[in-house]
Amino acid sequence: METSEIIYLEKTINELTKAYKKLSSNIIDQDHNFKELQKYMVEYKNELDKFQVYDYQQTLSMIDKHGFARVMEREQVRKLIESPYFGRFDFLYHGDHPSEAETFYIGRFGFADEEGTQIIYDWRAPICNMYYEFEIGEAYYIAMDQQFDGELIKKRQIKIENSKLQYVLDSSLTIQDQVLQQTLNQHTNDKMRTIVTSIQREQNKIVRNESAYNVIIQGVAGSGKTAVALHRIAYYLYKFRDTLRAERIFILSPNKVFGDYISTVLPELGEEPIRSFTLDELTEKLLPAGVTFRSFEGETKEILSNPNGELALRAKMKGNYSFVQKLQSFLFNLDSRLLKNENISIAGVVLQADYLQGRFLQYRSEPIVTRLELMADDIIQALKSKWDREGKIPNKSEIIKRLKKRLLFSSPLEIYRSFIETQGQNSFKFSKKHFEFNDVYPYLFVQFYFKGIKQYELVQHFVLDEMQDYTPIQYAVLSKVFTCKRTIIGDFSQAILPYETISKEAFGVMFNNLEYVELTTSYRSSYEIALYAKKFMHNGEIHPIARHGEEPKECMYLTFEQMLKQIHEIAMNDYRTTAIICKGEKDLQILQERLNIPFTVLDGQTGKFETGLVLTTIQYAKGLEFDVVIVPFVNETNYRTEFDRGLMYIASTRAMHELTVLVDKEAPSPLL
Ligand SMILES: Nc1ncnc2c1ncn2[C@@H]1O[C@H](COP(=O)(O)OP(=O)(O)OP(=O)(O)O)[C@@H](O)[C@H]1O
């Protein structure tokens, strides 16, 4: 190993250790000051006036805040002592002499010594873009709106563990190769890991993209979409640290356990954790108080168990973009008849129907309730100009009340009902106080039209995972609720609903300033598993990474007992995580009763991602990954249709290292 690297590491660790000690003594001092002041306040409680108490309290809170920041800083330094950096590159600025090439070490966080010399550069620093973006040769970076050209003359991957240099690899190519292979070969953890050391070029482009208002990432299973979205957040928090706050980022995730699974990535990157919400949690906040709804999760479960049932049909007709168009045009047409075409006489002055209609349409971009308010202002003005008698002009709220009485429908619910009835009697099932999920978002769209909707104005960035499970009408509402920048990720091949939902085309129509990116390399599964899964993919490309492992197995069984035995055998392995992924609830319950080894069930109630043996269904395994995956009950009933093919794709791509499909010998799935 090069001595220069050993020396640099020693120097770095020295500086870091110094900084660690300094921070520690600073923290102790702060703590001491805090306690002293607190003691003083208690002792002299009776002698301090309220202004002094206030002053001291402010000081205490400042010490506390300061102390907290120091603790966070020390934690970063501690992590850096373990592994200060993972790469190095040497850059020669154009015009400089070759001996003047500058060396940069890149790490999870930046670090400068006491003199202010930057010893480690944060991976998100502008200059570090070159590490991910360029190979040896011509390169440039942009900082403070200025482009700096030059040549990358060295690029190294460095592994440091427990402050010890493990290896140094010169890479002439991209960051592919051994390091990535090694990372991917590892067994799963109970939480998602950061990928800073091996972010690939196409991923890096998305992480650092600042131009698009809406970024849509379509990526094959295991292409790192979720990882990329989280690193993008970390990048934004770094780049826009003066204005962007972690608590103002909103992640909409498919289920609770997924939220837990991704929860450590940002803290690992030195950022505050970001709580994610499920669609059900968000929906509860959007609907008026007292209105309940069947959960998205519950409804999806039922639709999956009966894809041709009535519920599925009701949901299906509201799933595609043409439904949004129908509702939009219904509301557009309603505009010209919602306010009855009648004159109104207020305080003896007759307001002509034409005039009222004109005002009503003039404010078309506003919700109905706001329109009436604006009209009331206009009417008061008009009345004032015509007022020639003694007496009082009615006040605004009285006028609004009069106008409201002239509305054909008096609530969003009435409007929605009249619309949905035009779609056929079997198209809906709701009461005043309770909705099926498939009616919730169309209703909220009407609510927006009628009186507006709760907007998350403080949210600065909106992230949505598993985009293919959302329908255009849901996007139409969500885009009104979250008007900030958005990162939307998913895979059209991993649809969990058996009908058309959002499509690339619909995104194009519904969102302006949109950048659509595709990721086709799969990093999660071994080459053999990814290739096997490819046959279940509807369309599109999947490029497996060349990390080899065992061929997936299709094991036949004749009886349930035989299948159970196979499961037991496979589950006894040395990996950290094994998942038995059933198609639906029914199969899960059968196994739950009959499995004879310790396992945990992962479903809608699960809030924590557990290692060990997990029994789950495709619906809940989405987005997650396991070392070993077993897909049981692969028979002609379960896996038959084109939709089932997609489910097989989801299930098999959850596997990183081993995949076994248990096939009913007498009635095998025709999809195999
Ligand atoms: N550049 C990379 N370096 C190392 N590991 C990576 C890289 N990109 C992705 N991975 C790993 O690949 C796995 C899949 O990533 P992730 O879950 O983000 O993919 P996804 O596209 O969201 O998958 P899915 O759609 O199947 O849920 C993770 O273990 C992630 O850490």
Automatic annotation (TrEMBL):
Q: Which InterPro entries match?
A: DNA_helicase_UvrD/REP, P-loop_NTPase, UvrD-like_ATP-bd, UvrD-like_helicase_C
Kindly list the positions annotated as binding ATP: G219, V220, A221, G222, S223, G224, K225, T226
A single Pfam family, by name? Answer: UvrD_C_2
Single GO BP term:
recombinational repair
Occurrences of domain UvrD-like helicase ATP-binding (ranges): 198-526
GO cellular component terms attached to this protein's record? cytosol
A GO molecular function assigned to this protein is: hydrolase activity
Protein keywords: ATP-binding, Helicase, Hydrolase, Nucleotide-binding
Superkingdom of this entry's organism?
Answer: Bacteria
Protein name as catalogued: UvrD-like helicase ATP-binding domain-containing protein
